[in-house]
Amino acid sequence: MSLSSEPFALAVLAVNTLVGAVLVVSAYGLKDHVLGWISWLGGAIVGGFVGWVVVPELTAAPPAGGERLLLAGAAVLIGTVLGRVLIPLAARFAVSIAAFVFATLAVLVLTAGESLLRQFYRPGASGADAVAVDAAIESSLLSQPAFQRFLLIAVVVGAVAGLLALRYYDSIITLSLVALGAGLVATTVPVWRAVAAGEPVAFVEQATLSNPAFAALFVAGIAVQYVRHSVDGLGGSDTLA
């Protein structure tokens, strides 16, 4: 980016830093607003796409320009309302399902170990054969009592993790926003160093994630959220307050 465009680059840099810092400091207070904005915007985008593209393609006679615009507008309104209702529910269940899957797989890997994985993967094979599962091996594996116990334990642990994710959903979203904010600020650190050194601002080339800065900001963000909201019951169910 040339010197002539530095004011714009500095503005982009400042906005990224500001947004990241706000998320790090106020993730808990902003979580409902952020999810609300995402829900409104996501619902509006999906509704507009359905009304402008999908519905006209399905009708026998494509609507005229004015009719198509009205149809898209109505679809945007409907999508916005539905998105505000459905997207938060979907996000809550997505977090729970992700926790279930991750915990189940983690327990299987830790208990059954590498020997189990090798029965589903043939290193000498290539292409699709490399990940193909032999039906006979799978059948014999599932019939083994030891594996059945491992699988039962893994499913139980996964179910507990899923329930805990539902209970501490707000805490998980808060931590995710803190991580996002820390990532944004940490990405701008090398650029600010370049600015301090008097170098031209090349935001795209200079913006790289600084791992030490990310770790420090993430830990600091968690500490700030705890200090500000532990009195209100940080980590509680449904809401942290």
What is the molecular shape? flat
Q: Give the strand tally.
A: 0
Euclidean distance between termini CA atoms? 46 Å
Q: Compute the CA-based radius of gyration.
A: 25 Å
Largest sheet: none
Helix and strand content put the structural class at mainly alpha
Q: State the helicity in percent bands.
A: over 70%
Mean pLDDT across residues: 77
Ranges where pLDDT stays below 50 over 5 or more residues in a row are 1-5, 127-137, 235-241
The percent range for strand residues is under 5%
Q: How many separate helices?
A: 7
Order of helices and strands: HHHHHHH
Describe this structure in words.
- This protein has 241 residues and is mostly helical.
- 78% of the residues lie in helices and 0% in strands.
- The protein has helices at residues 6-58, 65-118, 135-142, 145-167, 169-196, 203-206, 211-229.
- Helix 1 (6-58) packs across helix 5.
- The two termini are 46 Å apart.
Kindly summarize this structure in a few lines.
With 241 residues, this protein is an all-alpha fold. The protein is built from seven helices and no strands.
Give me the secondary-structure topology.
Layout: H1 6-58, H2 65-118, H3 135-142, H4 145-167, H5 169-196, H6 203-206, H7 211-229
Keywords:
mainly alpha; 78% helix; 7 helices; 241 residues; disordered N terminus
